[in-house]
Design a protein that fits this description.
Elements (H helix, E strand, L loop, with lengths): L11 E4 L4 H16 L3 H14 L3 E3 L2 E2 L2 E4 L6 E11 L9 E10 L4 H15 L1 H9 L3 H16 L1
Parallel strand pairs: 1-5, 3-6, 4-6
Antiparallel strand pairs: 2-3, 5-6
Length: about 150
């Protein structure tokens, strides 16, 4: 892995949501609950970024992201949807897996590397299948942690 992404077990969840706005709200809520970030600020920043263009890059995955002075390194939450949601993704397919990413304000290339790392992982068919097929949040966290550790070695 190119960057040290911060993913905690409690930052992995499943939910049934209906819209992209509900997804962004839940991601902001997760950042607030797990990492103590300001929910309203993170939601506003995620919405601003999403207004520039969808963060759904295809393969049933979206990576809504922003920057904040509240974090010291790239921080991730992961939300798996019980039913896919239209995210205006590049391949026009609805998304089931959402990686929320908040990087430091001055992260520069580190933010881009974090996005690239997540994107590269989700382009690997075996990893994507394992993530989508994980039976629960604990298994999902385990799949990704094992991958992060392997990539760090």
């Amino acid at each position: 892995m190119d960057v040290n992404l911060r993913l905690l077990p409690e930052a992995v969840a499943s939910a049934r949501l209906e819209t992209r706005q509900e997804v962004l709200s839940r991601i902001a809520e997760m950042f607030s609950d797990v990492h103590g970030l300001n929910r309203a600020d993170i939601l506003e920043r995620l919405e601003e970024r999403e207004a520039l263009g969808s963060t759904g890059f295809g393969r049933a995955v979206a990576i809504p992201h922003c920057r904040s002075s509240e974090v010291k390194r790239p921080t991730v939450v992961l939300l798996r949807l019980e039913q896919p949601v239209d995210f205006a993704a590049a391949d026009a397919m609805p998304v089931s897996l959402i990686f929320g990413l908040v990087s430091p304000e001055d992260a520069g290339a580190t933010h881009l590397h974090a996005l690239a790392t997540i994107s590269r992982l989700m382009r690997d068919d075996a990893i994507l299948d394992a993530v989508l097929e994980a039976p629960d949040a604990d298994a999902l966290y385990s799949v990704l942690t094992n991958q992060f550790l392997r990539d760090a070695a």
